[in-house]
Amino acid sequence: MSESDALSDSELEVWRAFYVMRRRLDRALDLQFQRDSGLSASEYEVLFALNDAPNRQLRSRDIAAGIGWEKSRVSHLVSRMERRGLVARAECETDARGSWIGLTPDGRRAVLRAIGGHLAAVRRYFFDALEPEDAERLLRLSGRVVDAIGCAADEDAPAGDTALHGDAA
Amino acid sequence: MSESDALSDSELEVWRAFYVMRRRLDRALDLQFQRDSGLSASEYEVLFALNDAPNRQLRSRDIAAGIGWEKSRVSHLVSRMERRGLVARAECETDARGSWIGLTPDGRRAVLRAIGGHLAAVRRYFFDALEPEDAERLLRLSGRVVDAIGCAADEDAPAGDTALHGDAA
DNA sequence: ACTCAGTAGTTGATACATCAACCAATGGGG
DNA sequence: CCCCATTGGTTGATGTATCAACTACTGAGT
C-alpha cells in the first residue's frame, strides 16, 4: 500500500461532503424511525427480513447471513426485541442447536406501521434530491466501491467474508 | 409527509446498493484505522482536529461544534482518550467553566502515524473506484441531500441545530 | 449589585456493536 | 461407532453513542 499519496484539495472537499451527508442521512433516518414507529434502524431490518420470510420466521444464522451481521449481534438484538415482545424464539425440530426467530403480532404490527414512513423518508431525504442520472451512476459507483473494498480486504485477510457480498433486500 | 409513495424496484435497488456500500466503507475504514494505528475513527477525528488547532488544543465545545457532535459524546470520548494518554485536559484561564483539550506527544505521534494510511485507504477504497465525473456529481448530490434533510428536520423541529450545517473540514 | 437565563462540561443510564470465549449439537472420516 | 473439526447460538467485557439530569460559571438586563 503506497504511502504519501495524499488527496487533492478538491478530493478532500468531495470526501468531506460525502462523509457529512452519510452521517446526516443515517441520523435523519434513525430519528424518523424512532419518532414514527419506536423502532431502531437495526430492529427494522430484522423485522423486515422476518416479515418477508416463509412463516414469518427465520433461523438466527439466516438473519445474520441475509443482513450481513455477526451472529452475536443478532443474538443480542433479538434478546432485546424479545423482551419488548416484537419477536419470539422457538425451538428448531430439525437441528437441536438452533432456534427459530419468529415475528409476534406486535412485531408484525410494528413493522407494517414502519414501512410506509421509512420509504417516504428515503424518498424525501434522498431520491427527491437526486437528478435523474444520479441514481444510475450511484448504483454503478456503489458496486465498484464494494468491489474495491472486497479486493483490498482479501489482500490482507485471504479468508474472505463472502457472506457480506450477498444481497439482502 | 405524503404516505404511500413507495419506491420503484429500480430505486430500491439503488438504495440497497448505496446502503451496503456505506456500511462496508465505514467498516473497512474502521478496520484500517484499528489495524494501522490502534485508533478508532472517532478518536482520529478528535486528534486530527486538535492537530490542526493553534497550540494543538481546543475547547471541548469547539471540538463538538467543529465535528458536529454532542458535548457529551466529546466528554466521554476525551475521558477515554485521556486515560490512554492521547490527550490531556487543562484548565481554561478565561472561562472557569471550560477546559482545554490538548494533544499529548503520544497523541500527536498517533495521529501523524494514522493520517497517511487513512488517506491511502480513502484513495484505494473510494476514489480509485470513481469515474472522473462521479466526484463532482457526488459533491453536488451530497449538498442537496444535506439540504433536503435540513429542511425536512426544520419542519418537525423548528428550533434548528444549525451547528450541524457548519463545515467541519 | 443581583437575578436569572443560558452556556460549558460532566455524569449515569440505556442501547448498541464487536470481540473472544464458551457450550452444545452435528456430521463426516477413520 | 467414535472422534473431532465445524456449526449454531449465547454470554460477558469493552468501547461507543445518545439522552436526560446535573453542577458550576457567565454575562446581560435591570
Description:
Two copies of one chain form a homodimer. The first copy, chain A, is mainly alpha-helical. Chain A folds into two domains: 10-129, Winged helix-like DNA-binding domain superfamily/Winged helix DNA-binding domain (Arc Repressor Mutant, subunit A, Orthogonal Bundle); 132-169. The first copy, chain A, contains six helices and three strands, in the order H-H-E-H-H-E-E-H-H. Chain A has helices spanning 9-37, 41-51, 60-67, 71-83, 105-125, 132-156; strands at 57-59, 87-91, 99-103. Chain A has a three-stranded antiparallel sheet with strand order 1-3-2. In chain A, a hairpin with a 7-residue loop joins strand 2 (87-91) and strand 3. The longest helix of chain A is centred in the first third of the chain and has 29 residues, at 9-37. The first copy, chain A, starts with 8 loop residues before the first helix and ends in a 13-residue tail after the last helix. Chains A and B meet through helix 1, helix 5 and helix 6 of A and helix 1, helix 5 and helix 6 of B. Chain A binds a DNA duplex (30 and 30 nucleotides) through residues 40, 42, 59-61, 69-77, 79-80, 92, 95-99.
